[in-house]
Amino acid sequence: MANCYSFKGFVPVVPEDTFVHPQAVLIGNVVLGHGCYIGPGASLRGDFGKIEIGDGANIQDNCIIHSFPGRAAVVETDGHIGHGAILHGCIVGRNALVGMNAVIMDGVELGAESIVGAQAFVRGEMVIPPRSMVVGSPAKVIRAVTENEVAWKTRGTAEYQELARACLAGLTPVEPLKAVEADRPDVEPSDIVPLQEAREKPT
Q: Which among 19, 18, 24, 32 has a CA at the least distance from the CA of 3?
């Protein structure tokens, strides 16, 4: 079970079909949707303002979500938040992706199906149109997201939705082995590839 804490009368909400890793932390006014994946080390701290995570979204390892008092941090349906990202009092639109170690500041509205590059810094109050490619520090919109990139992002999020189901069904604490088994299987192959490779494939 995740580390969940009631605060000022608010108890986190976690539907039965959402997976929250035991090393994640949920505090106070946190409301998760159905079919979400919340990774190890994620901190969703709803002590000042509400945190709302839409259906099918994933918040990966070591992400931080917080806001100023009385304000909300929102990740809409099918949002995809990469490892180590920080969201503070912002709105991430439907089916949008925030890359690894990116920082999204207060008042930002990230449009649906947009992609924020890894390590980008998105300044406060920036309003980003749907299907925008956003990179840099400070971040800028450099172009529109292509159909191929939207398809890549959507497929990757579906993989995390399947991961949530698999973890609910079979993630189990164990003692580690002392040596590798002789018949240890390989990881099953997948059609998921890095974005650079996906851009080279036909739509």
A: 24
The whole-angstrom separation of Cα 64 and Cα 45 is 8
Q: Helix (H, G, I), strand (E, B), or coil: what is residue 96?
A: coil
Residue found under tokens 């503070």: 88
Please list the pLDDT of the chain residue by residue as tens digits (203 residues).
Answer: 679 999 999 999 999 999 999 999 999 999 999 999 999 999 999 999 999 999 999 999 999 999 999 999 999 999 999 999 999 999 999 999 999 999 999 999 999 999 999 999 999 999 999 999 999 999 999 999 999 999 999 999 999 999 999 999 999 999 999 999 999 999 888 888 888 777 776 65
The residue written with tokens 């690894």 in the block is: 100
Tokens in use for 6? 């009631």
Please provide the size of the chain in residues: 203
Strands 139-144 and 97-98: unpaired
Say how far apart CA 151 and CA 111 lie, in whole Å. 16
192: number of CA atoms within 13 Å, CB side?
Answer: 12
Closest Cα to residue 88, out of 45, 145, 26?
45
CA torsion 105-110-116-118 (nearest 10°) is 30
Query: How many C-beta atoms surround the C-beta of residue 128 within 10 A?
Result: 23
